[in-house]
Structures are given as structure tokens and as C-alpha cells.
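Handover notes (outgoing to incoming on-call)

Open items:
1. Two-component system response regulator: sequence verified, structure written out, both below. Nothing else pending on this one.
2. Nothing else urgent.
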Amino acid sequence: MYKVILVEDEIFARQGLRNLIDWNSCGYEVVEEADNGEEALGMIELIKPELVITDIRMPVLDGLGLIQAVRDAGDAETKFMIISGYGDFQYAQKAIKFGVKDFILKPIDEQELTDSLSRLSAEIGKEKQKRSVGQEQKALTKLLRGEAALEEVEEIARMVALPPDRQYGYLIAEMNDLVNPLKRDDEAKQLRAFHHAIINEFAVWNPVIQPLHLHEHRVGVYGFPVCLDPAALPAGQQSLVLEELAARLADRLNDSFPQPIYCYAGDGVQPLAAINHCYLTAIETMQYKYAAPNLHVFTYGQMKKLTLRYMELESGVYAHLLEQIEEGNREAMLEAADSIFAEIQQRAFAPEAVHNVIARLVFGVIGSISAMQGNERELHSLEATLQWRNYPVTLQGLQERFRHFIVESAEMAARLRRNYVKGDIMKIKSYIERHYNEDISLKSIAARFYMNPVYLGQLFKKTFGVYFNDFLLQIRVDNAKRLLRQTEMRVYEVARHVGFDNADYFVCKFEKVEGRTPTAYRNQLSAK
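Two-component system response regulator C-alpha cells:
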């Protein structure tokens, strides 16, 4: 029975409500009555009812004040049903802010009240079950982490339904290479299916284990105790039995999902009181996933023979890869990246060391992009590469993700370089158009803009379709023609104004471009 307190300042209305329905048949028991909110507040703190049915308008402390006081006291579990009149709409709106969902209008209809109570009963039941499971999982976590006192073990075993006379191991199943299951519906669906698949496997080969025993270490990673009968374990073969179970689970799960599934087995089989050793060693075994990336099953007994490395790569390795990215050498940069991942595997890098390598490479690329006046946030693969540890990923999956990142980065660098060069050549063009009448040359322009003269000459030809000297000559001749049209300057004066010290040389160059001398050009204009 769920406990109910009725709060109504009119005694006859309160008695009428109590007698309106058969509360017990609805699953409730009216345990107390109060004629104002202040009186009810003390009752709620003492009795902790599941439901309070209250009028809105009451002396001393009204219904809304009562609800707010209960919520302010930290009680989020007690449900409230409000009895209101037609003029209490504004009060009802405020009650919604406190999480009140049920309102009964006066005069109270028996069927409406019964329906509301039935709906609330289902909601209260679900919440109680959820809280109970939460408490059980919290107790199990305490046991797994070794935080439970010896005298608590038996009580926790009873609470979570784990027989204390059995032997236990600990396995972890991990779904790898999801990109972002919190944002991608297809991946979220895969995770739910993965969760259910593990539970279904329990039912087949370890029925003692229940869904509440499934411990989510993080997204895509589930751990669980394995319950074994000591009488059925071959002497000295306990660890082997656990490894066989891990291998069977990995095979079944990998047959069911396209993503790589890894399974990790902790150290041996222990009594329930010592299960934290199995739990901790299973977590420790996960550190070896990049040291033996071709495996799908990792056991503590195998992995502890390896020595994990927590070292850095040589600086030259990073510099070489960044150079290839900046130069856009696709094959060379992919080869350099593959060499880095081969070294990670060969030297048995720990996940923390892998993280440091990837972070240094990514921030190196970001530095290059920033130096070229680019915005690294435009790299679509940046987030997935930088935050790869948010979700489980295989070494092969991480390698593919990183390859995609450096290819995209190289493409951005090439675009920035083209824009940078285009910007420079337009600045140079503008400079020539302003200073054509000075003593300038390809060499002097290249020096001013910190460029190689040969490269600048090639860039001019590629951008404008003419060589630098021809480009400069055309600008000088065009301006000479303007002066010949608009002024009465002598030819030698025009020559000086457009950058020629020698008038004869000017006449020669003018005639080469225009097919006539400056004088002939002016005379032809006068004849029209």
C-alpha cells in the first residue's frame, strides 16, 4: 500500500474525499489528515508518504507553499495531487513548475480521482523499482571496488542475489570504433543491442548473473561478475575456465556486430569477498589493448607478461610528419603515420602514451594551420581525432581516424597556401602598378617580398600568363601612351616619367610593344 496524506482546511470536504472511494482497492492507505500546509509539512517529514493530496487555498501555509517547502527540503520523491477550483488556474500553473502533474477539479469526480490514482500508482512503482535497482548497483559497485567491509559482504550478496558460497571472476566486454553514439542514432541503437546481447548470453551460460549485475564502466564498456560452482571447476584450471568463457563471449558478440568487440578477463577466480581483485585486474588488462591489437580476448595472465611503455617518440618523427602534411605529400605523410602506429604496437605503448603521441601530432597540425592564418575548427575530423578517448577505439580504428585527419589537414594547408600565394602575387602586382616609374626589377621585387626570384618569375607566368619583364614593360607603355595623349611632354620626359633613363631605349621598347614609335603614336592621334 502507498501512504497518502490528505490536506484540506474544510473538514467536511476532507471527510468527503476520504469516503469517496475505496482507497485500499486502489492500492493506497490514507494515513493522516491535515487542515493546513504547515501541519502537513511535519507529517510529511515524519511519515514520508508516497502521495499528498492537497487543496490550493488554505490558511497558514497554502498548497503551493507546502509543495515548495517539501521540494526545498530535498524531497523530490513525494508525489502531489492538487485539488483546485475553476478560479485557481494561475495557482495550478505555478504548481507545474514544482513537478505537479495531477489536478482534480472541485467538485471531485470519483472516476477521475480513481484514474489519476491508478496512473500515479504505476509511476510510483516504476520509480521505486528504479531506486531499488540503483541501490543494488551502488552496493555491487562498492563490493567490486573493495570498499565494502568484510561484515557487509554477506548483506550485499543477499541484496544483489549473488550466492556467497560460489567462486567469482570478472569479465569486461567492449564495443569499439563508434564515432559518437550520443549523437548518432544508428550507433546508439547498436549500443542498446550490445547491452541486450550480453544479458542474453548470461541467460545461456551464467543464469545466476542478472541485468542489475551489468556494470557500465563507460559508454560501450560493460563489466560483470562471472559466478562459478567450485565443485565444477577442475583443480588448478579455474583461470582457464574464465578465459574460455571470455573467448566464447567474444566470438558470439563479434558474430553479432560489425564493430570489433574486445573481452577482458581479470586475474583468476576468487571468493565473493575478494572479487575486487578480479575487478581491478580486468580493468588493468584493458591497458594492453594497443600492445596486442590483433587479439579480441585479453587475459590478465597473458598480458602481465608484457611490459607497457610510457615513452614519447623522437622529436624528428613529429617534425617529419608535419613537414609532409605542410608540403602536401600524400603518400609520404600516410607512410609516416603508418610508421608511427607500427612503432606504437611494436613497442607496446600504453593508452596514455598513445594519447600523448596523438595529442602532440594533432596540436602540431593545429599550429601549422594557425600559422597559415587558417581556422582549425573547419577540420571536420578534428573533434573525433582529438577526443578519441571518449569512446572505445581499436588501434586500427584510431589509425584510420588519424589518416583521415592528416589528409584533410593537408588539403586545408594546400588551400591556405594557394590563397596565401594568390594574396602575395596580387600585392606584388599592386606594388608594380604604383612604382612602375621607379628602378624596379624581378630581383628587387623578390627581395622586398622575401621570395625567391626564380619562384616569383614562375608564379608571375602562371598567374598572369606573361613573364615579369613583359608585365612591367606593358604597364610602362600603357602609362606612356596615357601621357602622350593627355600632355604635351617631350618623348624624353615621358620616358623618365615611366621609368626609362634612356630615351632611345624607351623608344625601342615602345615600338616593340605598339608597332610604332611614341612620336608616330602621338601624330596619329593629332591627325584624327
